[in-house]
């Protein structure tokens, strides 16, 4: 099957020409090149912490693969904004948050190739897990879903690192883990042991992760 068409919707004109060529290689790395007939990256106007939303559309014609729509904020493909603390004394660096971007349009000089590759590989591998049913768990309580998603994200970037593919680095994933779970309680040494077990692959299956999130601060 031919490589999927790659399209962008709503992206700043200066940014899309740099993002577009990096989508197909990520699909190939993750063996998803034949899984979709078309891949659309849709710009979302709600900035998130490099999050993405996935949607599969029916094939346009018989025999075609489905279409993938991946929605995200254009900031995900740009240099990260400086961290800042709004408290005094300042919070620890891993607990600070990104400063909001001004309303000025994104410029091409802000494009970050390494960050783009990390974002695409992370979310496409997560999507592959969804497609093969790895994340199907009807027994997971709804109140644990956010913790499970955060823990699974750690395993995704750990797998990418071990495979030698781009992904969010250990320090960044650790910071996100800290920001999320410190909002619900004190992060103890045993919580960091869980984090590193997720990253290193000692906790790798859906069942492993679903069980271990019960030991993390309850969100």
In short:
With 219 residues, the protein is an alpha/beta fold. 37% of the residues lie in helices and 12% in strands.
Into which percent range does the helicity of residues fall?
A: 25-40%
Rg of Cα set? 18 Å
Strand order, biggest sheet?
A: 1-2-4-3
Q: First CA to last CA: what distance?
A: 44 Å
- Would you tell me the overall average pLDDT? 87
Largest sheet: 4 strands, mixed
DSSP summary, beta strand count: 6
Please report which band the strand proportion falls in: under 5%, 5-15%, 15-25%, 25-35%, 35-45% or over 45%.
Answer: 5-15%
Shape, please? globular
Q: How many independent structural domains?
A: 2
If helices are DSSP runs of H or I spanning 4 or more residues, what is the number of helices? Answer: 7
Unreliable stretches (pLDDT < 50, length at least 5) are: none
Given helix and strand content, the structural type is: alpha/beta
SSE arrangement, N to C:
EHHEEEEEHHHHH
3D architecture notes:
- This protein is of the alpha/beta class and 219 residues long.
- It has two domains: 132 residues, no CATH class; 76 residues.
- 37% of the residues lie in helices and 12% in strands.
- The chain has seven helices and six strands; from the N terminus they run E-H-H-E-E-E-E-E-H-H-H-H-H.
- The chain has a four-stranded mixed beta sheet, with no helix packed on it. Strands 5-6 form a two-stranded antiparallel ribbon.
- The longest helix has 19 residues.
- The chain is globular.
